[in-house]
């Protein structure tokens, strides 16, 4: 009887295991893109914009090819994020590209890889998280991989540089979830991507529209494919992206609390009202809301405008402009700290420090001080020793929809600055005290603390 039962299980087990549980598609292949192919540089890459060599880094581009699965929803997806899926189709061929930024000396690589789901909100790949935190990646010895994960980005590559990207093909966004999983798989199994090294930790990240897709990835795909050791979901709304095509995603979605990896939800002030209904802090989910910041800001825009001038992706390369000066709050400091905390957390270390939420009235109106800066949230020294009012939204501009997300900087009056800081020493003392609080709270890394204080010391205030 025992032999019969074993034989029966052997015959039936393959039919009882779902395709998702049985494992991913065949391993993807990786092919180096010749440096001089096409126009000679990666679209949306750092070549000619950042002096990577001075930091001991190189940028290389690869094609990633394989067969991707698509997924479909099982049952009702509720706000708790505990979502079930099944594999809808298999064997869908694709070719996409990876932009790799890594230490030129493999010995400098510390084992952490950040894989970014490149944002396509404006029809072209934008490496938002790289633009904010490349300084942290370079000084910490991380490797970075930007992935063209969606059809809009792939199609734009072929338009901008058909000679370089003629082989790129993503048939639909339904492939994006498995493509992102396979990018992590490639990072782990193709050491040539990392100068011959293999990673210790692979972190996935994505901003805005990509954050909505990463929310769905975290809740529905990561549990069955297990691609990442931690996720950074940056600038999300309360909703999530659809798992397939032609349907709306859930309108309200927490990150599931039974996920086996840590998730960091990093929000600007612009994002808070749209995500207030799904605020959460749990054993495996940490949320920071950074006061005074915008969904996108001047620091990131500077790098994007330079890339756009080179690539001519939007508006024939013209810089993005708005009605008012764009938000210049130092969001990058908080994002740098968030990545450092997530790296440690994913390695089994302590969870990131908690942060109070930005203060909201009736869940929809940001509470502000006399200078019109937000109360609560992660407090950076440029906000607690202010020279301006920092708003979450702008208007007008030459790129439809962009300025709504870029925020504003409205300098305080000379009289107000004189009252706050009657002399330079007072300004430096107040700024340094604010930086001390942020550093002690875990919101400001030592290198950023030193940069911020030096900047205050050099500022002609008052």
Automatic annotation (TrEMBL):
Pfam families assigned: Abhydrolase_10
Signal peptide span: 1-24
Top-rank taxon: Bacteria
Alphabetical keyword list: Signal
Domain Alpha/beta hydrolase residue range list: 34-453
Annotated InterPro entries: Abhydrolase_dom (IPR045394)
Record's protein name: Alpha/beta hydrolase domain-containing protein
Organism taxonomic ancestry: Bacteria, Bacillati, Actinomycetota, Actinomycetes, Pseudonocardiales
């Amino acid at each position: 009887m025992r032999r019969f039962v074993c034989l029966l299980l052997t015959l039936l087990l393959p039919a009882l295991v779902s395709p998702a549980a049985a494992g991913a598609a065949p391993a993807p292949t990786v092919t180096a893109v010749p440096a001089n192919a096409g126009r000679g540089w990666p679209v949306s890459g750092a070549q000619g914009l950042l002096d990577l060599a001075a930091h001991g880094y190189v940028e290389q581009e690869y094609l990633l090819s394989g067969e991707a699965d698509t997924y479909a929803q099982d049952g009702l997806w509720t706000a708790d994020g505990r979502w079930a899926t099944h594999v809808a189709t298999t064997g869908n061929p694709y070719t996409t590209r990876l932009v790799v930024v890594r230490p030129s000396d493999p010995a400098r690589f510390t084992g952490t890889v950040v894989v970014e789901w490149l944002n396509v909100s404006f029809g072209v790949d934008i490496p938002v998280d790289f633009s904010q935190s490349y300084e942290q990646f370079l000084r910490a010895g991380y490797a970075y991989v930007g992935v063209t994960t969606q059809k809009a980005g792939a199609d734009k590559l072929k338009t901008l540089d058909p000679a370089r990207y003629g082989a790129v093909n993503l048939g639909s966004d339904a492939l994006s979830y498995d493509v992102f999983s396979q990018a992590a798989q490639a990072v782990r199994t193709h050491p040539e991507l990392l100068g011959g090294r293999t990673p210790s930790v692979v972190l996935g990240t994505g901003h805005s529209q990509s954050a909505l897709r990463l929310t769905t990835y975290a809740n529905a795909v990561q549990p069955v494919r297990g691609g990442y050791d931690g996720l950074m979901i940056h600038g999300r709304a309360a909703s999530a992206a659809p798992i397939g095509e032609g349907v709306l995603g859930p309108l309200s979605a927490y990150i599931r609390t039974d996920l086996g990896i840590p998730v960091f939800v990093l929000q600007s002030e612009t994002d808070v009202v749209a995500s207030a209904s799904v605020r959460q802090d749990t054993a495996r989910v940490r949320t920071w809301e950074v006061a005074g910041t915008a969904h996108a800001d001047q620091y990131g825009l500077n790098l994007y405008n330079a890339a756009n001038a080179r690539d001519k992706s939007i508006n024939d390369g013209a810089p993005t402009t708005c009605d008012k000066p764009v938000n210049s709050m130092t969001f990058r400091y908080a994002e740098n700290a968030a990545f450092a905390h997530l790296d440690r957390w994913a390695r089994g270390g302590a969870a990131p420090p908690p942060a109070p939420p930005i203060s909201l009235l009736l869940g929809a109106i940001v509470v502000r001080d006399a200078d019109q800066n937000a109360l609560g949230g992660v407090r950076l020294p440029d906000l607690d020793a202010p020279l301006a009012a920092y708003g979450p939204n702008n208007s007008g501009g030459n790129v439809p929809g962009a300025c709504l997300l870029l925020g504003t900087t409205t300098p305080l009056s000379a009289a107000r600055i004189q009252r706050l800081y009657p002399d330079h020493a007072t300004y430096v003392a107040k700024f340094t005290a604010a930086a001390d609080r942020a550093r002690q709270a875990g919101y400001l890394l030592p290198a950023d603390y030193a940069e911020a204080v030096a900047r205050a010391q050099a500022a002609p205030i008052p």
